[in-house]
Amino acid sequence: MKTQDYCPILEEAGIRPTSARLLIYGAIAETKDTFSLGSLEEQLQSIDKSVIFRTLTLFHEHRLIHSVDDGSGSLKYCLCHNHGHCKKEEAHCHFYCECCGKTYCLDNDLIPPVDIPDGFIARKVNYIIKGTCAECARRLSPAHCPDTEKTFR
């Protein structure tokens, strides 16, 4: 897709499609899995870091992207494939690789429903699986990654 193809997505979300916002959304749309503010800044060096941060905040507020706390200390984001019209039952799981630090979207694995006690109000669900990704498992010996001998089935 070209950057002008993203104009209707931003406009429908109530966001004015400036050139910087279109470039940032385009970079996000091309990202297969999650991304961080730092990785986006590295990818878009021609755009001021504060503009990228404010744009991510804006996209998050309008639900064009979702935030993922993978426990790494760096907030990750992933693109909302429904352009801000997600239902909570469409939320997917994520996998955090303890070797390379990458967080993968598991789009086909939805977060299972959880019955919470009466009186509790759930605001957000974050489902993270931690372990070793396939690429790290292929190239590294088990001694290089934490707890690789422990698996859950």
Detail the poorly predicted runs: 148-153
- Overall geometry: globular
- The total beta strand count reads 6
Give, in order, the helices and strands: HHEHHEEEEEH
Q: Overall pLDDT, averaged?
A: 86
Backbone CA Rg:
17 Å
| Physical arrangement of strands within the biggest beta sheet | 1-3-2
Spatial separation of the terminal alpha carbons: 40 Å
Largest sheet properties: 3 strands, antiparallel
Number of helices: 5
The proportion of strand residues reads 15-25%
| Structural class category | alpha+beta
The helix content, as a percent range, equals: 25-40%
Task: Characterize this entry briefly.
28% of the residues lie in helices and 18% in strands. It has 5 helices and 6 strands, in the order ααβααβββββα.
